[in-house]
Design brief:
Blueprint lengths: L1 E6 L6 H8 L4 E7 L2 H8 L5 E5 L5 H9 L3 E4 L6 H11 L2 E4 L5 H4 L2 H7 L2 E3 L8 H15 L3 E13 L16 H7 L4 E5 L2 E5 L9 E3 L7 E5 L5 H5 L7 E9 L2 H10 L16 H9 L7 H9 L5 H10 L13 H12 L8 E13 L2 E12 L7 H18 L7 E3 L4 H13 L5 E6 L1
Parallel strand pairs: 1-2, 1-4, 2-3, 4-5, 5-6, 6-15, 7-12
Antiparallel strand pairs: 7-13, 8-9, 10-11, 11-12, 13-14, 14-16
Helix pairs in contact: 1-15, 3-4, 7-16, 8-14, 10-13, 11-12, 15-16
Length: 439
Amino acid sequence: MKNVLVLGAGLVSRPLVRYLLDVPEFNVTVASRTVSKAVKLVDGHPHGKAIELNVKNDEELEKLIRNCDLAISLLPYTYHVKVAGYCIKYKKNMVTTSYISDAMKALDQDAKNAGILILNEIGVDPGIDHMSAMRIIHKVENSGGKVISFRSYCGGLPAPEANDNPFGYKFSWSPRGVLMAGRNDAKYMKNGEIIEIPGKDLFRHHWPLHIEGEPEFETYPNRNSLPYIETYGLKDVKTMFRGTIRNIGWCDTLLCIAKLGLLDDAEHNNLRGMTYNDLTRRLTNAKEDESTRDATSRFLEQDSSKNVLDNLEWLGLFSDDPLPDETTYLDIMTVRFLEKMPYREGERDMIVLYHDFLAEWPDKQKRITSTLVDFGIPHGDSSMARTVSLPAAIATRLILQNKINLTGVHAPVLPEIYNPVLDELETMNIICKEREMPV
C-alpha cells in the first residue's frame, strides 16, 4: 500500500480525496487544522484517516511527511517550501496546485539529488491551462510551425442561471485570495512591446472577450505573463498575454474598491464599533452635510459612475451594518464579499478556460483556439473544486504508480505529464475543445 498525505481540507479538496480513496492500493491521510473538515472528506472510508494538524507544529508535520510516500500540499502557498524541505529530507514526492515561487524553484537541484519529484501548478489555472497549451504548442512545433502569438484567459464564475448579483460573481474559493489578486502588478507582451501595469491601475486595463457560444465577458491581465515565454519554450512569440475572465462590470467596480483603499492589509486598531457607512465616510473624507454616496462619488472622481455607486451601495458600503471584528480593510471586505456573494444550495459555478494562438508555417498561418467550459454539479462538487483538484489527484496516482518518472521541481509542461492527465480528465467530461482556422 502507498500512503498519501493530503495537507489541507479546504473548498477544493473533496474531489481529490475521494479520487485517491478509490485507488485500491492507496491509504489517504487528510490533515487539517479543523479536523471536522477532514473527517467529512474521509467520510468513514476504510482506507482514509482524518487527523488534526496545526501546520506550524514542525515536529508533527515532519513526522507525517516521514511516514508518507507522497505529500499533497493544499495549504496556503506560504507553507509549500517548508513542506518541500521535509519531502527532500525524507525523499518523498510532493504535489501542489500553486505557482512555483522563486524559493520553490531554488530547491530544484536538492530535489534531484534526493531523487524526488516536486510537481507544482497542477490545478486549473495554473494547471489545465499549461497542459492544454503545451499540447497545442508541441503539435505546432512537431509539424514544422512556430507560435507567434498566444493569449490565454481563465476565470471561475457563476453559471448563467446563478448569475444574479450586480458583481456577476460568487465565491467558490478563497475570497481573500480573489481580492488580494486585485492588487497584483501585471506585465505582458503585445506585438513585441513589453507592457507593465502597477497594481493600483490593474483594473483600468480591461477589454471585452468574445468566446464563440458564450456571453460576452471582460478580461484583465493576470500577473506577469513573460515567464511563460520560457516555460512554454515560445522563442518566436511576439504577443504573450494571460488574462483573468470576469463578467462585465467587475473591473470598474473593483477599481473603485481598490481606490478607496479597501484592499489594503495594514492593521487598524480603531475600527471597533464602526459601521460600513462610518468607514466609507472616513475613507472619502466626507463633509458633515454630504451624503456618503455623494462623498464617494466626489472621491472617486472620473472613475465614479451610477453603476459603480449602485454596486457599492448593494455591497453595503453606505449602510449602518456593523463592521465585522477584523483589523484590516482587506479582511473586512473578505467577510463582506462572502456574505453578499455565496453560492446557494444547488447552484452551479462554471470554469471558462480559453486559449487563442496564432501559429505560422513557411507557407501559411493558422489561428488555433482551445476552449474549456465546465459546470459544477448541483448539490455536489463545484467546477472549481473538480478542475483544481482532479489534475493533482490524477498526477499523484501516476507518480505513485511509476508512470511519471521525473525528478526536480516541475510544472506540467512535459508530454509524460500532460498527456495522461488530460486524457483522464476527458473521461470525466473536463474537455478542452480545439479548433483550427486559416488566417
